[in-house]
Amino acid sequence: MPAPTRGEIEAAVTLPTYQVEYWNGSAWTAIAANNVLDVSGTAESAGGANGVTFGAEATASLTIRLDPSCSTIAWERTRVRVKFSFASADLITRATGVITRRTRDADGAVTWEVEGFNEPIARTAVYSPLFYRRPASTLTSATSIEDPTNGAYRAGLVNYILWAAGGRPSEQAASYPSALFYYRCDFAPITPEWSWAAGENAWDELGRLARACGLVIYQAADGVVTATSALALGGTASYTFDEGDYEDWREDASTGELVGAVRCAYTTRRLQPRQVVYEDSLARQIVPGGSGTYTLDMQQPVYDFEITSGALPSDAITATTTEGKLLTMSAAIVSQSASRLTITVTNPGAETMVISRIQIRGRPIAVVEEGSVTVGSGLPEREVGSDTGVYVQSQFHAERLCTLFRDLYGTTLPTRQLIGSGYDPDRSVGEIVGLTNAAWALSAAPHRITAIRHANTGATMDVDLVPSATLPTPAGTFIIGASYSGGDVRLLSY
Amino acid sequence: MASISLNATTFYPADIEEAPEAIGTPIKAANGARRFAKRADKRVWTLSWNRVTAAVRAQIRAVHALTSTFTYIDEAGTSFTVLCLPGAYRSSIGLIGMPGGVLTLYYNVTLTIHEA
To answer: Is the CB of A248 less than 8 angstroms away from the CB of B25?
Structure first.
């Protein structure tokens, strides 16, 4: 069957259809239509007062009411997806996530509260190697190498975190049919000197990375976790909302994000010569024939460890028998990342072994300089580097980030809400659409969809829009990874 | 008097009122255009009996008390799967008779059934 046509979607009498499915551990299982009482939810493309704030603030949510027969379905962190369509056309996935809460009414009706994939991402502890001058996110494609265990891996830290959290590139979905979620990334416009993940809340880490490097990370309507470049927030409208599409409208503009001057602090880190990066003298006993696995957390991120043939050098482990006889031991590497090393020590002897000291050498990166830059003038002056973690590491990076903020937030962008539209499965958050409204003297004015709130099980929706005419577009700048001809004239990006 | 069947019991209601019910969500645009997101067309029947005995009233009440859907066969012989919603049953005393000096009550009964 084909996708729903515009005629079916815009008919005076539409025939909306729906399907709720859950992942039973091996396959998607449909819940009978008669057992679904109501579905509503929200997908956002960005947070903040202006709706285009950098970061990973936007989330998706879904509320599904079911009849009592569904109370036996195992719900905890179960993946669900909701498909909508019209008439006899193909059902299209328009909302997905994991169930994080279930309530039941006195009459037995079940309600599933579903969060977007930010929830499982946040629960994942990701430890990465140090990436040097690697774009925070790199373009995903059908052939991009996204598996960090591949020796040719060159993807960015955003890709790394999303992969580690169970995501797989949407362009390669056919190769990963049972992935937890799919992701799609642009090249980030700004590249940090050094980037790494150290096991903290991975969604928060994505947010810091996105704020530092000019990315907006959100879950698209089809469930794909999307990292969009700040240079790709604008564009050309593909559809226009007019007064025949929505019942009511309102606007909310705030100076909360408006900037005059932009200030950003930076902390420069440099690669240091080989030195001791970890040392402890905890007593560890290993019985004869036994082994011990130890996780060692570094004080500073380490670019590379002194490792030979998959093992630490023999002087890294100081071990004796219980009678004090010195032993020569080696430790095998189980896993390594910039901030954590896991080793296994085996006692092949006939006596109990006591490890009295572990000393690891490597090349760490360390803070060598701190500074601050200000771009622009006037009030308000806004600090943008305070929630960018460790990623702003040079004056050049700070200046570029400030310039990007000033260009995006130098003008107040109102959020315009269209209320009471018929549901349109062709619309998605992040899409550029036109808006016609005689009361506001708007005629096909370009806007970016920043939120879609669907209700009545795919019958109606409200839409949030932000004017996009002043936002940068990919067509206006040179972007890493794109091809250009000799005559192209564009801005040199940020 | 037409005969119908409710859950395999034959009845002879005095009136059968049928009303179509379009189920969905109405949408009204800012320019006044009206749309309707339609889920289904269903029917609602209101069945009325005048001056029936307590025994017939009990049969009708038993239909109303069913805890699952049941089959309704209309006066033309067409079958539908139906159910009763809260408030579907109404009964009042239609006539008090004294045949042979014995007090007898006759009832007016209304039952509303919805297509499932």
So the answer is: no
Whole-number average pLDDT of chain B: 94
Contacts of A456 in chain B (CB under 8 A): 25, 37
| Higher per-residue confidence, A229 vs B44 | B44
Element (H, E) at A150: none
Would you tell me the crossing angle of helices A157-164 and A202-213 to the nearest 10 degrees? 160
- pLDDT grade, residue A263 (50/70/90)? very high
Q: Which residue has the tokens 């009030």?
A: A379
Q: Pinpoint the alpha helices (H) of B2-116.
A: 54-64
More confident: B61 or A258 = B61
Q: Do A244 and B34 touch (CB under 8 A)?
A: no
Contact yes or no for B65/B78 (Cβ under 8 A): no
CB-CB contact of B84 with B111 (8 Å): yes
**Which of B27, B31, B39 lies closest to A422 in CB terms?**
B27
Query: Is residue A50 very low, low, confident or very high in pLDDT (cuts 50, 70, 90)?
Result: low
What is the nearest CA distance from B52 to chain A, expressed in angstroms? Answer: 35
Task: Give me the helices (H) in A184-316, please.
Answer: 202-213
Alpha-carbon gap, residue B43 to A341, rounded angstroms:
69
If phi over 0 gives left and psi between -120 and 50 gives alpha, with beta otherwise, what is residue A472?
A: beta
CB contact under 8 A, B37 and A249: no
Query: Whole-prediction pTM value?
Result: 0.87
Q: Does B97 touch chain A (CB under 8 A)?
A: no
Cα A197-A229-A386 angle, rounded to 5 deg? 50
